[in-house]
Design goal:
Layout (H helix, E strand, L loop, with lengths): L4 H6 L14 E11 L12 E12 L23 E12 L8 E5 L8 H6 L17 H5 L2 E5 L14 E2 L13 E7 L5 E5 L19 E5 L7 E3 L4 E2 L1 E4 L2 E4 L3 E8 L4 E8 L7 H15 L13 E7 L1 H12 L13 E5 L39 E2 L6 E2 L3 H6 L4 E7 H6 L21 E6 L25 H17 L16 E2 L1 H7 L16 E4 L4 H4 L8 E5 L4 E2 L14 H4 L3 E4 L20 E4 L4 H7 L6 H4 L3 H18 L7 H17 L15
Parallel strand pairs: 4-5, 4-16, 16-17, 17-20, 20-21
Antiparallel strand pairs: 1-2, 2-3, 3-5, 3-6, 7-15, 8-14, 9-10, 9-15, 11-14, 12-13, 18-19, 22-25, 23-24, 26-27
């Protein structure tokens, strides 16, 4: 150990740092401390140490900073009137704190798991990084960042090292836990007898009574279809276990099983209601603690100048929600973070701060439209909703607080198809561009998909899955965001598709412009989230009285337009799409056998390779020029991607040091593509073989 745990525990009484009742982290409980990666040095920064434990929070429900937390007035309190709870944390920091870059990079964990070491460092996925291998390339550590994770979402299932937090229940005037109706949608890709009422490693709200006669289970093919009720005698609260059904208040079993692709919805009485929004306060207060608390309890005391928040997908939407609700400012009016990198969140927020919130839920073209994750306002500048008469913007609360972080929004084409990303920069009618706030930039990776994945099979979608890797660009953008927030150095101008430039349009426009590739089906719809009719208490109290909610008119969303190769316009063209070997798309349709074949798969894009030569192209009837027509040789192709990478590095979208690696990686992809034996549905060539 670099310091005896006993020393830390002796300091716990001091962790209630100056401020008395306003001390949002009451104490830090260190459970383990060790040298990270066996004491390996990371460049000039040197070794790192790893600290894990629990943060014990105390929240004053009367503080104005906490007023936007739904049900805070009903949260269970201690005798002093305070709300207390605790959650896990993990900190990686330079062993010599003075050797770091004086930045804390905080990742909002995605469903209890950590991702930024895999994302930025190409490290293997793990929730308990310990070895040199778990550090991957070492990029973040060599830069000198302290790295922090803390638990925030109460509903994470324990196991596999996922971070846990215990949030208090909401209590009624009689002191009993608040209960109510909950709606849970269930969709499967393969036949199954039973399913939990939540997904994404979430626990869900348990039914109060396994035999409640008024619980309803319905099914339908599409969101706007009439719900068809399944008789109560034909389903039950239970899970399949070793071939038999076991009673389970958080699972549903139906006679004959769930059919792939259909939308099942169970509405039932559940409880207790958890004060879910306290999880956002936990993020705020964990950052505030490590940023401002004094020694000796705070291991980072005196070692930080700036804090950057980072979130992928759900976690990025959490940051958006915090900004909307002003929960990025602590009880003393201090900003918890200076900058935020919000990645692949589309224009969404989330089911994070209302009664019976379900944190894993978000609308996709096919699923989960009834959950309030995509709601006005979306843009970072003022706009209006002509249907409701509302006027607002995402950052209005931040401006009112006087604490407006610098923000990079990064999306791919995929989020325009599946996460309503256009609403971040268009009006809600989809008819005009809005632009962005001065404190925000938006960078869209043209023809990318939601995740940067290499998969050798199609899973439940029709085409090979898009192999575009935008992580090198994200490393460069992290450094540019850091420089903007900490040094005032202006970042690159935003790059995203626009209506006025003809690079953003309707799905019908897209279909008309896309090349007629034989055998390739095109999507019919993208996500157009409905305005939800949630009942009279939603606006003021964030309580859903209409369960399930009604669907009002949809927000109009737009998608990037394609060029003659089917590659999207208006965004950052990374080297593999600037000098392509095929068509990359942000969408991929569900395939036969998995149901809902007319709908887009939830996260995946497509890759459709070009024909090898002009003869093969003509035989297939493919309108796209062949590989042979584009590149004289492998060297010609590698030169093309290298030139594209160098140009992007010059603009600040890649690091110059990574250009040779990118060219080598794409050269290897060229080799695998040329060596493959073309077979329908074969995708093994996507993944390198050792």
């Amino acid at each position: 150990m670099t310091r005896r745990i006993g020393v830390w525990l002796a300091a716990l009484a001091l962790a209630a740092w100056a401020g008395g009742a306003q001390a949002a982290v009451e104490r830090i409980e260190v459970l383990a401390e060790s040298a990270f990666a066996g004491g390996a040095a990371f460049g000039a920064v040197g070794p790192y140490r790893k600290i894990t434990g629990r943060l014990h929070y105390v929240i004053d429900p009367a503080e104005a900073a906490n007023a936007r937390i739904a049900d805070i007035a009903y949260a269970a309190r201690d005798g002093d009137g305070m709300v207390r709870f605790a959650g896990d944390f993990m900190l990686l920091m330079p062993a010599d704190a003075t050797a770091g870059n004086r930045r804390l990079l905080y990742e909002v964990g995605n469903r209890g798991s950590i991702g930024m070491l895999t994302f930025f460092n190409d490290a293997p996925p793990t929730n308990d990084p310990a070895s040199a291998a778990d550090a991957g390339s070492g990029f973040l550590l060599e830069q000198g960042y302290a790295l922090l994770w803390s638990a925030w979402n109460w509903d994470v299932r324990p196991g596999e090292g996922r971070a846990q937090i215990t949030l208090p229940a909401a209590l009624g005037d009689d002191g009993a836990p608040v209960t109510g109706l909950v709606s849970a949608e269930i969709t499967v890709n393969e036949p199954t007898l039973s399913q939990p009422v939540a997904w994404g490693n979430a626990r869900g709200y348990p039914a109060l009574d396994l035999d409640q006669a008024d619980a309803r289970l319905t099914k339908r093919a599409h969101q706007n279809d009439p719900r068809r009720e399944i008789p109560r005698a034909n389903w039950r609260f239970a899970r399949e276990e070793r071939g038999r059904l076991v009673p389970d208040a958080a699972s549903v079993a139906v006679d004959g099983g769930f059919e792939p692709g259909l939308l099942y919805e169970v509405v039932y009485r559940a409880g207790p209601a958890v004060v879910v929004g306290l999880g956002l306060a936990a993020i705020r207060d964990s950052l505030s603690y490590f940023r401002y608390a004094a020694a000796p309890a705070n291991p980072l005391a005196g070692a930080l100048d700036h804090v950057i928040a980072f979130g992928i997908s759900q976690s990025g939407r959490v940051i958006n929600q915090m900004l909307l609700d002003g929960l990025h400012v602590d009880e003393r009016g201090r900003g918890a973070f200076d900058a935020a990198l919000v990645h692949v969140a589309g224009a969404g927020k989330g089911s994070f701060n209302h009664r019976f919130a379900q944190t894993t839920r978000h609308p996709s073209p096919h699923q989960d439209h009834q959950y309030p994750a995509d709601f006005f306002p979306f843009a970072t500048v003022a706009s209006g909703d002509p249907v409701t008469g509302e006027i607002g913007d995402l950052l209005a609360g931040a401006r009112g607080s006087g604490v407006v972080p610098k923000i990079f929004f990064t999306n791919t084409s995929g989020e325009y198809w599946t996460r309503a990303a256009s609403l971040l920069h268009t009006d809600v009618t989809g008819s005009r561009d809005l632009g962005l706030a001065e404190s925000a930039r938006l960078y869209v990776f043209a023809s990318g998909q939601h995740g940067s994945w290499l998969l050798d099979n199609r899973l439940w979608v029709e085409n090979c899955i898009n192999p575009l890797d935008y992580r090198p660009a994200m490393r460069a953008l992290l450094l540019r965001l850091d420089a903007w927030a900490s040094e005032g150095r202006a970042p690159p101008a935003s790059v995203y598709p626009r209506i006025t430039e003809g690079t953003l349009g309707t799905v019908a426009d897209y279909r008309a412009k896309f090349p007629a590739i034989p055998g390739l089906r095109l999507p019919l719809v993208n996500l157009r989230p409905p305005r939800l009719e949630l009942g009279p208490r939603w606006r003021a109290q964030r309580i859903i009285d209409r369960v399930p909610p009604g669907f009002g008119p949809a927000y109009e969303t737009r998608v990037p337009m394609p060029d003659g190769d089917g590659i999207d316009l208006g965004g950052i063209r990374l080297p593999e799409v600037a000098a392509p070997l095929g068509t990359f798309t942000g969408w991929n349709l569900r395939r036969e056998g998995f149901g809902a074949t007319d709908m887009i798969g939830r996260w995946f894009g497509s890759f459709i390779p070009f024909a090898a030569d002009e003869a093969a192209r003509a035989q297939a009837g493919d309108p796209r020029p062949s590989l042979a027509a584009r590149y004289q040789s492998r060297a010609d192709y590698v030169a093309g991607v290298g030139a594209a990478a160098e140009a992007l590095a010059g603009e600040g979208f890649l690091r110059a040091a990574e250009v040779p690696q990118i060219a080598a990686r794409l050269g290897a992809f060229y080799d695998r593509l040329h060596a493959r034996a073309p077979r329908p549905g074969a995708c093994a060539y996507i993944v390198p073989r050792s």
